[in-house]
Design a protein that fits this description.
Blueprint lengths: L1 H27 L3 H14 L4 H21 L2 H21 L4 H20 L3 H21 L4 H18 L6 H21 L5 H4 L17
Length: 216
């Protein structure tokens, strides 16, 4: 029975793949309503499909980024909470997968961004620390993955920006985080492995959305 169920699921996913590509295309075209409907349709049939969950996660994160910069904190937080729910489903579907862990790290980071904007620095500190812990593990696992190294730099920088606003000794810890981030960036720059946007990471606002997470 398990074999038959797995075969049926595999066939469903093959049939749904064009629909998933269409959902991603609508997302890329900034058609969120259409993309959202397609993702809902896909996941109603295959609720544990990791590829679809990962795609929906990133779609929701990008919607949250837009809201954080263009509309309201409440709307942004709603998107990031939805992304958090999606990543929990993804973790159940593929708990050991690296992309699941990375998505979880990004989810912590984005929630921290909203908490910074709300002025809730203690909560932001906790969120950033949890995201950093995962980013460190991924970066250590594959030092040649530029995207993961940049993820770590961004996590360090955002955490440092919050620590800098705390009282000693946490405030002193900020300098070490900034220094560590620069130590990671410098050899990447020397080896010409950074995009123009990645070179600008140290100048970024802690709440500014970033697309560098998608570079691998």
């Amino acid at each position: 029975m398990k074999a038959r169920a797995a075969a049926a699921s595999e066939k469903n996913r093959a049939d749904l793949l064009p629909l998933l590509k269409s959902a991603q295309l609508q997302a890329d075209r900034n058609q969120p309503t259409e993309a959202s409907h397609l993702f809902a349709e896909i996941l109603a049939v295959e609720p544990d499909w990791p590829d679809a969950l990962d795609a929906q996660f990133w779609f929701t994160v990008i919607q949250g980024d837009h809201a954080l910069n263009q509309t309201t904190l409440d709307e942004a937080f709603g998107h990031f909470q939805a992304a958090w729910t999606t990543v929990q489903r993804l973790l159940r579907a593929e708990p050991e997968a690296l992309r699941s862990q990375r998505d979880l790290s990004i989810s912590y980071e984005r929630i921290g961004d909203v908490q910074v904007s709300q002025g809730d620095l203690p909560s932001a500190l906790s969120s950033y620390k949890q995201g950093l812990e995962i980013a460190q593990k991924l970066a250590a696992r594959d030092p040649g993955n530029t995207g993961w190294q940049i993820d770590l730099v961004i996590s360090l920088w955002k955490l440092a920006s919050v620590l800098e606003q705390q009282r000693s000794p946490q405030k002193r810890e900020a300098g070490a985080k900034y220094q560590r981030a620069l130590e990671i960036l410098r050899p990447l720059a020397v080896e010409n492995r950074l995009t123009a946007e990645q070179k600008n990471v140290p100048n970024r606002d802690p709440t500014e959305s970033n697309k560098t997470e998608n570079s691998q």
